[in-house]
Design a protein that fits this description.
The chain is of the alpha+beta class. Helices cover 32% and strands 33% of the residues. The protein is globular, with a radius of gyration of 17 Å. The relative contact order is 0.17. The N terminus is likely disordered.
């Protein structure tokens, strides 16, 4: 496991990751952000049924499994957010008539699980060796009753928050890729929170580099 302790100094919970966690997948990563833990694995490009094939690009499927095991509407929405994010990053036109499958398993949710899941997916994609336009990083923040911004909030902080947002940024221009918002928030507060999370995403991207260099060294 690799631990980037510098994250602590910037009010993000410590991140730990282990790649190649699953032996029967093309890429996998188990990621913890504080006590929140997600496991992601990627398989592909795969042969798929003709009726599911696209002559222009790979067909991407994302499946989310909650800790309880019973699917629900929020789980389907998580799949949609993660699929949309992955579709912007994967160079799927290089893999026409094939399928790419991403699976996410919830292990522990102590706040910020959507961000943890998205970041685990990015690490699993990097581990799989699939061609990508860019990497992506997700950061969650909450607005408390006083209007203060809390980066990477815990479950307790989220329960008392006025609103919470998960922002996803791409690595090249740090442009916003995806955003998921819960609660009521003004445009000004939304923009301020986004800039805080954009700055914090630099730490996540730096963490990715640490992980990739660590595993590149091991493989070398």
């Amino acid at each position: 496991m690799v631990n980037d302790t510098d994250i602590k100094d910037f009010k993000l919970r410590p991140m730990k990751c282990e790649c190649n966690y699953l032996t029967r997948s093309d890429g996998s990563a188990i990621l913890s952000q504080g006590r929140t833990v997600a496991l992601a694995n990627v398989n592909g490009p795969l042969d798929i049924k003709m009726q599911s094939q696209s002559i222009e690009k790979a067909t991407l499927e994302v499946y989310f499994s909650s800790k309880g095991g019973k699917p629900c509407v929020p789980d389907r929405y998580r799949e949609h957010v993660i699929r949309s994010t992955c579709e912007t990053a994967i160079l799927s036109s290089l893999y026409p008539r094939t399928g790419i499958v991403v699976n996410i398993q919830e292990l522990e949710d102590h706040g910020g699980f959507l961000a943890c899941s998205i970041n685990a997916c990015c690490l699993a994609l990097l581990n799989s060796g699939l061609a990508m336009r860019h990497t992506f990083a997700a950061v969650t923040c909450a607005i408390d009753e006083r209007g203060n911004i809390q980066l990477d909030p815990t479950t307790e902080q989220l329960e008392t928050a006025r609103a919470s947002m998960t922002y996803v940024f791409e690595s090249r221009e740090k442009s916003l890729v995806t955003c998921f918002t819960q609660g009521s928030i003004s445009d000004a507060a939304f923009g301020e929170a986004m800039e805080h999370c954009r700055s914090a995403s630099e730490l996540v991207f730096s963490f990715y580099k640490t992980i990739v260099s660590q595993y590149s060294y091991v493989l070398g």
